[in-house]
Design brief:
Layout lengths: L1 H24 L2 E5 L2 E6 L4 E9 L30 E4 L9 H7 L5 E4 L1 H20 L4 E14 L2 E15 L2 E10 L15
Antiparallel strand pairs: 1-2, 2-3, 3-6, 4-5, 6-7, 7-8
Length: about 200
């Protein structure tokens, strides 16, 4: 079991190194309240999104209106692909009407397998919510790694990750989760934790 934990710890750090390498090669970075997005105009997808999660009881009515932005895919390009328009900054975490509108900006959206998006990914978002109750704030970096294939003009990512930087009792804890962009094999989040 220690060998597995050491491998998982190594993989967690490897993912962080990959994220840093990608950050150097990204052509565009911009702030769209409440997240910062690193956008790949070649593939027309957000490579990663970064935001600070602070627990709040505020709930904003969901709009479900996906908005094309300059250089992004059109929301209708997902039709017939069998992939969800998966939010990197979750719409459910929007704390103002403008944040809700911005969560549906296509610079915050990438093709996710429906079973991933509606299942274990949603479970991970609930996990972040629950962790935030006991912590001042959580820095979140989430995105994809590698384009696996294309459906028409729609690039399909191979993996999605979410890295959490949690301040807990004066210490910093890093947690990274990695998911293949397909129907998940396991329902337990621990099976996807790298460190």
């Amino acid at each position: 079991m220690n060998i597995l934990k050491n491998k998982k710890g190594f993989l967690g750090w490897l993912i962080l190194v990959i994220i840093l390498i990608l950050a150097v090669n990204i052509k565009s970075q911009e702030y769209i309240e409440p997240y910062k997005v690193w956008f790949d105009y070649e593939n027309k997808l957000p490579i990663k999104v970064e935001y600070t999660y602070i627990h709040s009881l505020v709930k904003i009515e969901r709009t479900n209106y996906f908005k094309q932005d300059s250089g992004t895919l059109h929301p209708n390009q997902y039709k017939g692909s069998k992939y969800d328009r998966g939010h990197l900054f979750p719409a459910a975490k929007a704390k103002t009407k403008q944040q809700m509108v911005n969560s549906f900006n296509m610079k915050n959206v990438a093709p996710q397998h429906p079973s991933l998006n509606r299942g274990i990914w949603r479970k991970l978002e609930s996990y972040v919510e629950n962790r935030s109750i006991c912590n001042d704030s959580i820095q979140v970096i989430t995105g994809y790694i590698q384009i696996e294939s294309y459906i028409g003009d729609l690039p399909i990512p191979m993996y999605f990750y979410k890295t959490l930087k949690i301040w807990e009792e004066g210490e910093v804890i890093i947690e990274t989760f990695l998911f293949k962009n397909k129907k998940p094999e396991f329902s337990d989040l621990e099976m996807y934790r790298l460190n």
